[in-house]
């Protein structure tokens, strides 16, 4: 059976198994409506506001440095890390990309909207801080990280009772989406913003004995900074590799044997890598039987780098994780008693 | 929309939306749907017919589930790695019945949303895009990537037996 047919059937089976007490649900809904009608309405998002540098850049308003106008800072959800000072107006990331919404590009990784208000847009992309400035027929929405650093600046023009997005300028790394760090070419703990600690993928999210092999920060498609952790753990005769955050992670497996597995698709989140070449290739070799004697990778100019094996207590055999610049990786060599075999990324599992 | 129309909307769509929230991984799908209808009620003066209300409901449910996942401090685990059933499992308890659904749960949220909206709700691309708040091109790529990820995961699981 094709995967799509199987997915359709199993989703329907699972949904049908979920019983719904409509009478109770209706009563609960009516109670909630009554409660909300009785509670005071606590904010209107469309209060006009002006803020110095960010608005000046977008709207042509000249304001002296240090002079701040009234800000609209909604302390409703996502309220936990909302800063009273709003979002810093200047980008601090190494590179920004600007997306026009005039139909000239298919880049739809980040599409700002004010249809449901700035708080809803911030929630949609999980931005901890936001700030909206409206000046007549123009609006500027800033979305920021929990430390108020700017992730994106989006401009809008009023169109009837809606705001139409004009452009969005979004943070990114240089040249990839990775936040630049020392030693980026080596797997390890590169740290990350403490603001993302609560969503880091941890051992408790995975199977027993999982080991973290990499942790680094990157910019997502909306310019926000996140941490991404990569963990490995034994899965029967295979090696399972998990990468991401606690609310969103990818899993794949490295089969046992001499043929490597290309793990590049899980090194960085696919959603945020659309249209971009990966900065690094990640390759796994899992050897539960003890056949492999050495693993190395070769660059396009012929340099060979030997990769040390990893052995964990209680795990079968040994494994290797190869991290190499994507553009520079010519092949991975796996040596056994019978000889050596060279694999390009196209040859791998 | 008056109260009678609101009630008709509720009884026509509430069950479906509870199941949608459950498939998207909501821990309390009934609560999600109560919240969704409360928002529709608050916005009823702008929703003058069911043709606008139904897509709005879909969108609210998708966003509400996403928002709750973000605030949850307990990670979802793939079903076959679960050891402790008391770790805040969502109501959508897969158990060991379906490797497909287990791997679906491990997908990034947008891929999971796109696949559920496409293969369970059978929505056209334009409606999926509206519910997810993205463009149709993004929906296509999310569906494609989601299927590819499932195919890889399930292919390896099956070959390893």
Explain what the structure shows.
The complex is a heterodimer of chains A (349) and B (161). Chain A is of the alpha+beta class and 349 residues long. Chain A has helices spanning 3-16, 22-38, 52-59, 118-125, 264-267; strands at 95-100, 129-135, 138-144, 150-159, 162-172, 211-219, 225-235, 238-245, 248-254, 261-262, 280-287, 292-299, 304-307, 318-325, 329-336, 339-343. The relative contact order of chain A is 0.09. Chain B is mainly α. In chain B, helix 1 packs across helix 3 (50-71), helix 2 (29-42) crosses helix 3 and helix 5 packs across helix 7. The chains are: A alpha+beta (349), B mainly alpha (161). At the A-B interface, helix 1, helix 2, helix 4 and strand 9 of A face helix 1, helix 2, helix 3, helix 4 and helix 5 of B.
> Biggest sheet of chain B, in brief?
none
* Arithmetic mean pLDDT of chain A: 79
Percent strand of chain A equals 25-35%
* Main sheet specs of chain A: 5 strands, antiparallel
Order of helices and strands of chain B: HHHHHHH
* Oligomeric assembly: heterodimer
Q: What's the number of helices of chain A?
A: 5
**Could you name the ranges of chain A where pLDDT drops below 50 across 5 or more consecutive residues?**
40-84
> How far apart, in Å, are the first and last alpha carbons of chain A?
23 Å
In percent, how much strand structure appears in the residues of chain B?
Answer: under 5%
Secondary-structure element sequence of chain A? HHHEHEEEEEEEEEHEEEEEE
Q: What Rg of chain B do the Cα atoms give?
A: 17 Å
Question: Which class do the helix and strand fractions of chain B yield?
Answer: mainly alpha
Helix content of chain A: 10-25%
